[in-house]
Amino acid sequence: MSHWPLPKNVDPINAEFWQTLQDGVLRFQRCTDCGTLRHLPRYQCAECGSTAYEWAPVTGRGTLYSWTVTHQVFHPAFDVPFVAAVIELDEGVRFVSQLIDADPAELELDAPVRVAFKRITDDFQTPVFRLEKT
Ligand SMILES: [Zn+2]
User: Fold this and answer.
1) What is the Å distance from ligand 1's center to 26 Cα?
2) CATH 3.30.428.10 corresponds to the domain 12-131
3) In this predicted model, what pLDDT tens digit does every residue of 90-99 receive, in sequence order?
4) Which of 32, 70, 89, 92 could form a disulfide bond with 52, CB atoms 3.0-4.6 angstroms apart?
């Protein structure tokens, strides 16, 4: 049985990003000079140019910014249909992920969501999102 593909860490900073998530806390780079969060991971702050950063935990809460329902099988591990979503986290970062356990017919813009973690292998998990029950 095929599992979700693992990230291809072509750059050490991407590997850092994925490693910081393995304890089940969503983190993004935060510039330690101006406080701006960075995503996708990068070596320089887009706001102030600083190369200094730390991995800062975020709430994991956000809203559904955009989505598409995928019916085409692009990888055998992905059951279709699935919801590929852009999540806008409360901290302002937009993050592309999968929205799980959701009925596509019931999705609404700005619906509240919360991060969950899907285990891919014994030593790797990836962030996904679920609708927040209100
Ligand atoms: Zn900065």
Assistant:
1) 20
2) no
3) 999 999 999 9
4) 32
pLDDT at residue number 133 = 82
CA 70 to ligand 1 centroid distance, Å = 36
DSSP assignment of 27-65: EEEEETTT--EESS--SS-TTT----EEEEE---EEEEE
Q: What are the angstrom distances between the C-alpha of 64 and each of 38, 59, 60, 72, 96? A: 19, 15, 12, 22, 10
CB under 5 Å of ion ligand 1: residues: 31, 33-34, 36, 45, 47-48, 50
77 CA to middle of ligand 1, Å?
A: 38
- Determine phi and psi for 19, rounding to 5 degrees: -65, -35
User: Which residues of the chain fall short of a pLDDT of 70?
Assistant: 1, 134
Total-model pTM: 0.93
Domain ranges of the chain: 12-131
